[in-house]
């Protein structure tokens, strides 16, 4: 299907949608099937549903161009998703077919297959030969078929037909065709000739994978079939059609394994190219993007003339039914479809555990005014019981309800939805709620201050030592720090609320903040209690933290970490000392490396020196407490 896009130059261009097919592979073992029900299932030839991780009584329904269920044969996948685009190659047009999905979900099976069940690649190449030989001689064209085979590993283009070659450049000629100078191109005389070259080259890749551990699923394998047709008569016009058949790197979240070193670099490269591919597919299919970001990764740069534009493209997203693939399946489906529908219906009646973050749930319950809480509790109770005897299907949700998995799901959803709608609203709601709480604390603080002044006056009036002792005794147990009091009378009035406020940590923080900022002449001594001599500026970076309640300090740090990990550009810019450039650098870092596991990771972001980081922390913690 073609549609019109307006380019950055304002010129209207015709561009093709990428057809998206999803293929669900069957269970790999009987036992798996017996133990667990599937977490995803097909509804018809275009729709499927997956359990909603936020609420297992709901499913999320997706619509695709084609859905291939577990029983779909290799032949059926080829006939419905690939064969229809092949005739275009003979007319000088380009096409691409790529298999996307997590490791083990069936990409290689779909693209390569086995001797008994050949996949898309052998079927497509055979079909191209058939189409060429079926061409009528009288049409006046000569056809030639050739191949190149390469992989993109760590953003390097490597020639699989000449395995000793180095990283090859990608160029674009004046006609906007993408070329790879130095890439081996082999002319093929027949399908068996193709086999002769393709199989050893594939083995090259497999050998490398054994040596380098998992390299195969960590590189994108790209087979290029070129059909060149030349007019026999003058002016001997020549047309070239290109077909890219791509087995993409596994889309699983490589971060989960705690990758380091070479693995981290690989996962960064894979994330970058798959993320760019998703943006390109999205831009092509939404028809709204002014610029399609082909140049942002080697993969998309290479596929530029065969993905979108006048090219015909099909993405086959491979998914697996097992629960252990849930996160990868969910993210693969979100990659493939930008729209989805939440359906309020249990997926399977037995598996109605609710893998929802406790925080989130309490807010939902609060909003629902407590209604529905009882069945919910009962469900959990039942679930607990059956877990104990080991028979609960809800045990599948264990991995889903792990905080790290939940966090990644939330982050993923935010990324997919560009931090919009419900999540944005809930963040805003949280902020509004926090502001309200802080306001209330400020009110209480003022009240304490008034009382303190009153008490101080009373203390002055009653000079009896007995009374004074009693007064001190009442307050002593709540006192957190014994300041170096030189003028007790003046300080007492202000110190008392501080002591009382320690009943509630947040209140205490508000007090410290308020006092350290609003220093009047009279209150100067107080600020000296909270801050060391020499003032705030000269305070050692660590010493200001030690003045604060640790639990609230931790809470503030968690909040900052949460924003760093899940905030969109606007939310990041809402942090102190984070401008547009830094916010973008943070987003970029997150894109490549994943979550910040601790706040100190921020120093890995470009231009965030240790000094800037310390100042960032101070400003944000004080701000979080004092707003
Ligand atoms: N539709 C299917 N029918 C039968 N078996 C399948 C199907 N899809 C995948 N398999 C089998 O599942 C296993 C994993 O599939 P495959 O190797 O294709 O996954 P992959 O996504 O390519 O993984 P990797 O990224 O590691 O290359 C293989 O044994 C494969 O034969």
UniProtKB/TrEMBL annotation:
Residues 481-490 have a biased composition (Polar residues). It comes from the Eukaryota. CDD domains: KISc_KID_like (cd01376). Its main location: cytoplasm. Residues 17-342 form the Kinesin motor domain. Residues 358-400, 458-492 are annotated as: Disordered. PROSITE patterns: KINESIN_MOTOR_1, KINESIN_MOTOR_2. One of its GO terms (molecular function) is ATP binding. One of its GO terms (biological process) is spindle elongation. GO terms for cellular component: microtubule; microtubule associated complex; nucleus. The keyword DNA-binding applies. ATP binds at residues 101-108. Residues 459-470 have a biased composition (Basic and acidic residues). Residues 424-458 form a coiled coil. It holds the Pfam family Kinesin. Signal peptide: none annotated. Keywords: ATP-binding, Coiled coil, Cytoplasm, Cytoskeleton, DNA-binding, Microtubule, Motor protein, Nucleotide-binding, Nucleus, Ubl conjugation. InterPro entries: Kinesin-like_fam, Kinesin_motor_CS, Kinesin_motor_dom, Kinesin_motor_dom_sf, P-loop_NTPase, RuvA_2-like. It is found in: Cytoplasm, Cytoskeleton; Nucleus. Belongs to the TRAFAC class myosin-kinesin ATPase superfamily. Kinesin family. This is Kinesin-like protein. It comes from Xiphophorus maculatus (Southern platyfish).
């Amino acid at each position: 299907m073609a549609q019109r896009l307006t380019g950055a130059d304002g010129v209207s261009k015709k561009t093709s949608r990428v057809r998206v097919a999803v293929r669900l592979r069957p269970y790999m073992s009987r036992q798996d099937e017996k133990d667990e029900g599937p977490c995803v299932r097909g509804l018809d030839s275009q729709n499927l549903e997956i359990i909603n991780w936020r609420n297992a009584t709901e499913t999320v329904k997706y619509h695709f161009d084609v859905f291939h269920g577990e029983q779909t044969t290799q032949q059926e996948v080829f006939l419905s998703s690939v064969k229809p685009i092949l005739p275009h190659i003979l007319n000088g047009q380009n096409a691409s077919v790529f298999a996307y999905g997590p490791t083990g979900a069936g990409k290689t099976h779909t693209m390569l297959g086995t001797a008994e069940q050949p996949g898309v690649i052998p079927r497509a190449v055979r079909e191209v030969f058939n189409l060429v030989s079926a061409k009528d001689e009288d049409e006046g064209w000569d056809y030639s078929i050739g191949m190149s085979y390469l992989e993109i590993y760590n953003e390097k283009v490597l020639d699989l037909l000449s395995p000793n070659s180095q990283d090859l450049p990608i160029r674009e000629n004046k006609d906007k065709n993408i070329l790879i100078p130095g890439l081996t191109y082999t002319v093929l005389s027949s399908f068996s000739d193709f086999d002769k070259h393709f199989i050893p080259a594939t083995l090259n890749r497999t050998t490398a994978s054994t040596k380098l551990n998992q390299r195969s699923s960590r590189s994108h394998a790209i087979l290029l079939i070129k059909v060149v047709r030349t007019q026999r008569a003058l002016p001997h016009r020549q047309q070239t059609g290109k077909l890219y058949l791509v087995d993409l790197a596994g889309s699983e979240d490589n971060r989960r394994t705690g990758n380091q070193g070479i693995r981290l670099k690989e996962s960064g490269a894979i994330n970058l190219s798959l993320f760019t591919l998703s943006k390109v597919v999205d831009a092509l299919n939404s028809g709204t993007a002014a610029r399609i970001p082909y140049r942002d990764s080697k993969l998309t740069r290479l596929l530029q003339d065969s993905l979108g534009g006048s090219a015909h493209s099909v993405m086959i997203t491979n998914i697996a039914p097992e629960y252990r693939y849930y996160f990868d399946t969910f993210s693969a489906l979100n990659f493939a479809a930008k729209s989805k529908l939440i359906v309020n219906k249990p997926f399977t009646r037995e598996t109605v555990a609710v893998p929802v973050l406790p925080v989130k749930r309490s807010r939902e319950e609060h909003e629902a005014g407590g209604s529905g809480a009882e069945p919910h509790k009962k469900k959990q109770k039942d679930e607990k019981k059956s877990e104990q005897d080991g028979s609960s299907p809800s045990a599948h949700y264990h991995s889903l309800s792990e905080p790290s998995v939940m966090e990644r799901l939330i982050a993923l959803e935010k990324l997919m939805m560009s931090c919009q709608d419900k999540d944005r609203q809930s963040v805003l709601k949280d902020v509004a709620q926090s502001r309200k709480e802080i306001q209330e604390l400020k009110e209480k603080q003022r009240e304490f201050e008034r009382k303190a002044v009153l008490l101080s006056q009373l203390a002055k009036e009653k000079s009896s030592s007995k009374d004074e002792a009693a007064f001190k005794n009442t307050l002593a147990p709540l006192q957190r720090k014994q300041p170096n009091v030189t003028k007790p009378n003046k300080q007492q009035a202000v110190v008392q609320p501080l002591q009382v406020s320690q009943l509630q940590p947040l209140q205490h923080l508000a007090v410290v903040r308020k006092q350290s900022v609003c220093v009047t002449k009279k209150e100067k001594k107080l600020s000296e209690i909270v801050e060391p001599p020499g003032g705030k500026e000269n305070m050692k970076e660590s010493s200001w933290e030690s003045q604060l309640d640790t639990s609230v300090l931790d809470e503030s740090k968690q909040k900052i970490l949460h924003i760093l990990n899940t905030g969109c550009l606007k939310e990041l810019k809402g942090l102190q000392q984070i401008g547009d450039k830094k916010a973008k650098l943070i987003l970029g870092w997150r894109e490549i490396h994943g979550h910040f596991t601790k706040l100190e990771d921020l120093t890995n972001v470009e231009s965030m020196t240790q000094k800037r980081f310390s100042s960032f922390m101070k400003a944000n913690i004080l701000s979080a407490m004092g707003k």
